[in-house]
Amino acid sequence: MNTILKTDITVKAICDGFIYNELEGKGLFGLSGKLTIQPEYQRNYIYASDGGKKEVAVIESILKGYPIGLIYFNKVSEKNLEVLDGQQRITSVGRFVTDKFAIKDENGMEQYFSGMAKDKQDKILKTVLLIYECEGKESEIKEWFRTINIAGVPLNNQELLNAVYSGPFVTLCKEEFSNSQNANIQKWSAYVSGSANRQEFLECALDWVSRGSIGDYMSRHRFDKNITELKKYFNSVIDWVSSVFTDVESEMRGLEWGRLYEEYHKKSYNPTKVSAEVQKLYADPYVKNRKGVFEYILGSSVDTKLLEVRVFDEATKKSVYATQTTAAKTKGKSNCPFCAIGHDANKSKIWGLDEMDADHVAAWSKGGATSVKNCQMLCKTHNKAKGNR
Ligand SMILES: [Zn+2]
Prior knowledge:
Helices cover 42% and strands 15% of the residues. It has helices at 11-15, 53-64, 87-97, 118-126, 138-148, 157-164, 168-177, 185-189, 200-209, 214-221, 228-244, 257-264, 271-283, 293-298, 314-331, 337-340, 380-387, and strands at 2-10, 19-21, 26-30, 35-36, 71-77, 80-85, 103-104, 110-111, 128-135, 149-150, 153-154, 356-360, 375-379. Zinc ion is lined by residues 336, 338-339, 378-379, 381-382.
């Protein structure tokens, strides 16, 4: 059996002549008709179910430059290929470029392919898919699939990439990052999740140094006799994190330290102050997302969205609304304190509970609690205006 790795097939080529059969729920053809996407015996397209989260994720990965994994074609004849593995991903791409579904852009607006900016369209169309073309008897192909699936545990992406780009570089990489005897593993485990023998440290190191383009990086360095750059970059990131954050918290494991390093390593931090802030936020019952604490501090403690600060519960809102409304009615003023001091028609308007939102009188970031005492109800317009300041 022959297997050839193709690294020159673009999304554009794959989607040439793409046809989706609504009735059967199947992606049918691609590659100008040469490719059969879902042969008769294959299951139907399932990525559109569950609200289409999976098909949207495929497109978002492509836009971010992340790999969408290896795809396998079976070469049936000179003119015919069948997709062995990758139907769902290919159908997602085909459906997107033919405007069958939309994704949300940075502003949360629905965007169809045909309505996207030209550069984004091009980014998608020019993306190269990593495709293995297999040619051989059915029994051989089944054997191949058995080898890439060890005892029912499918090879993960990194294991497959190691196989694809095997050579001196991968050997050196494994000695360093996939060796559970390496004394550094314990230190790395504080910041990187996964295990050495499933290549997750290596994957992380490659992801950081290549800014997410692992396949490209491995292909460029395949025949290198050293891994100096990779090691140096990985250690720079780890050293940076461990010097800025002197505490080791379990929520630090698996964060996007490579991205954070790129964004923040040129800024200076006082580790003692940073540590005090980490402890303060960890002790704060209003902080729901502890994983966000580190990026929040790196970004000068402004982006409270990262912390998912707890909001007022319904009981608090109702009770504050009742008190505020009763007082307002006696005074003949609006129950929105901001409307009440205004001069327009709303100055005596009594808003309904569903027309108002809860606001922290003293901002949470300035020490204000999420309690009845620190809660006031504002009309939606004034609440928004306050939030934008
Ligand atoms: Zn108001």
